Amino acid sequence: MNTIVIGLSGGMDSSTLLGSLLGKGNSVHCCIFKYGSKHNYHEIRAASEIIEYYNLNGYSDKIHRHDFNLSSILGSLDSALIGDDRDVPEGHFEDEVMKQTVVPGRNLLFASTMASVAENIGADKVALGVHAGDHFIYPDCRPEFIRSLNTTIYLSTDGQVGVTAPWTKKTKADILNVGYNLDPPVPYYLTRTCYKSQANSCGQCGACVERLEAFKKTNHSDPILYE
Amino acid sequence: MNTIVIGLSGGMDSSTLLGSLLGKGNSVHCCIFKYGSKHNYHEIRAASEIIEYYNLNGYSDKIHRHDFNLSSILGSLDSALIGDDRDVPEGHFEDEVMKQTVVPGRNLLFASTMASVAENIGADKVALGVHAGDHFIYPDCRPEFIRSLNTTIYLSTDGQVGVTAPWTKKTKADILNVGYNLDPPVPYYLTRTCYKSQANSCGQCGACVERLEAFKKTNHSDPILYE
Questions:
Q1: pLDDT per residue as tens digits for the range B50-87
Q2: Residue B98 placed within a domain
Q3: What total number of domains does chain A contain?
């Protein structure tokens, strides 16, 4: 029963983290980031609906929301996820081309913001939903980064706040299995994973491909709409 | 001759860092942060004038400016430097009461932002102007924090960007001696150190007291106006 600050993107991993932490009796402060990515509008809508789901399922006194706009920092960076001048690459998450989707410093900035919130409200943990499938492309999701981030945030807050990232060694299929076994189950029908900007998910980008593989592996059918 | 990203607050330490890095032939990208502190308006005005000074002294092709607004994150935190409901404490920088001036996570957020800029423009260093006098009050200025931050940013950027903080073991008097020996000298008449909101510096807050002591120790007279 702790107070924990998480980054809630509205995707499968952070939504499962939210459900799991609430299920263990924690008070959870969700940070939602506007930062100028192509799919950001859909992420924020999904995160809002997921919070509403838990509010309606008995957690309204345990769930808190904080909105931040980091567009002035991240909204003009060189990344295929940002702006309109480059397309989101299609293919498998472990293809070299997917490195175009790196947003420089995104997780460090998100975690730093969450650390400020945590220190200010007296929370003792910042929790991140990074998972094993992120490691190949994203340096700011790898275990060695998370360990160093933990030390940095611990020192920055004079020992008050640490970092936890329970999915670091889990695949997206493992995470799905966790979420479907929670009561209530994680509302995957509300989550958004696709990197592209259209209303329905594309099914072709690295994020969609990895999501669909996870549902297939766990013998669940993905409840969201695809193009 | 590198490209280096610095945080420029318009105070003595970061202004001397700017002058020193320009003097060594580096290209310097200055990040200026709006974040809602009482003295923020004066800091930004000072930083602007210091950049203009170096522009007029032959460095216009070596100096770049980036403005960021972090008020949505830092502008409502619990700190005597933020908002109107608490006064800035007066006294010596090493008094316990000065810990009220901690802004939770400020340096981590500033450095994270600078790391995103550095990664995006291909710079290899983020430089911070923290100095030895900061260590007692501010955990996010201590050498162990800077070392851990260096590792975290290095890992976050896949080995591209590191952190340097050349004043970590220097006092404010040491820094003044560096700045007065540069050609052109650092324009201390343009710098702003005071934590309070009025136009002229107060001379009573921890920041002013430490500044005045440094000028006294180095036998320079402080060229700025005090109340």
A1: 999 999 999 999 999 999 999 888 887 788 788 777 78
A2: no
A3: 1
Q: State ipTM.
A: 0.91
Residues from chain A that touch B74, judged by Cβ atoms under 8 A, are: 116
| Interface mutation target, options B153, B156, B168, chain A, most CBs of A under 10 Å | B156
| Residues in chain A within 8 Å Cβ distance of B156 | 105, 107-108, 139-140, 145
Give the pLDDT confidence of A4-49 residue by residue, as tens digits: 999 999 999 999 999 999 999 999 999 999 988 878 899 999 999 9
Contact A111, A149 (CB under 8 A): yes
Write out residues 53-72 of B within 8 Å (CB-CB) of A.
67-69, 72
- pLDDT grade, residue B192 (50/70/90)? very high
Find the CATH number of the domain harbouring B119: 3.40.50.620
Calculate how close chain A gets to B110, using CA atoms only, in Å: 9
Q: Is residue A39 part of a domain?
A: yes
The answer to whether the Cβ–Cβ distance between B72 and A69 falls below 8 Å is: yes
Q: What's residue B160's pLDDT?
A: 95
User: For the segment B112-166, what is each residue's pLDDT rounded down to a tens digit?
Assistant: 999 999 999 999 999 999 998 877 888 888 999 999 999 999 999 999 999 999 9
| Number of inter-chain CB pairs under 8 A, A vs B | 105
Q: Kindly state whether residue B182 falls inside one of the protein's structural domains.
A: yes
> Does residue B62 lie within any of the structural domains?
yes
Sort out which chain A residues have CB atoms less than 8 A from B142's CB and list them.
155
What residues make up the domain containing A13?
3-217
